[in-house]
Amino acid sequence: MNTLDTLDTLDTPLDTSLDTPLDIPYDIIDIGFIGSVHGLDDNQKSNLFQQLVRFKRRYTTVNAHHGNYNDADKYFHELCEKLEFRIYINTPRHIPRHTSNPLPYFRNTQVVDFSDVLIACPFEKVNVVRCGTWSTIRYAEKRKRGVIILHRY
Fold first, then answer.
1. 42, 60, 53: which is closest to 18 by C-alpha?
2. In whole numbers, what is the pLDDT of the chain averaged over residues?
3. Cβ–Cβ under 8 Å, residues 142 and 134
């Protein structure tokens, strides 16, 4: 069954193995999303859904940020629409002169800068130096954002 089809059952118990110690002490949270250009596998889709439901249950308002770059972003966007989150698409039209980052990395840093927590769905299971998803994870950690990594099977 498609994860999007299960959104009518938001009262179902969640997998407690996915619990994270993240606790933002407000009624509003900004979550960012970064996914691999290779897309999401079924495990990542299921875990992403469960994490988003957790945010919906915990916070009055959830703002979702993504870069509108690939199929993973599209899937995240669809879930956020179904859950009635506020959605913000971070797609800069140009790079400010003060940065040397190429456009995709600048877009990813914007997603992190506007977020309290980053949900990342990398293709690789280990930190890869020349990878946009892992680069964004490292940037989020450097900026002291919460990071939730959802691995493939």
1. 53
2. 83
3. no
Torsions phi, psi of 117, nearest 5? -140, 145
> For the residues 108-120, what does the mean pLDDT come to?
94
Enter the pTM of the model: 0.80
Question: How many of the other CB atoms lie within 10 Å of CB of 60?
Answer: 9
> Which structure tokens are listed for 102?
């190429």
CA–CA separation, 69 and 118 (whole Å)? 16
DSSP codes of every residue in 22-44: ---SSSEEEEEEEE-TT---HHH
Residue positions counted in the chain: 153
Tokens found for residue 13:
């118990």
Q: What is the pLDDT of residue 40?
A: 96
Please state, in angstroms and rounded to a whole number, the distance separating the CA atoms of residues 63 and 114. 10
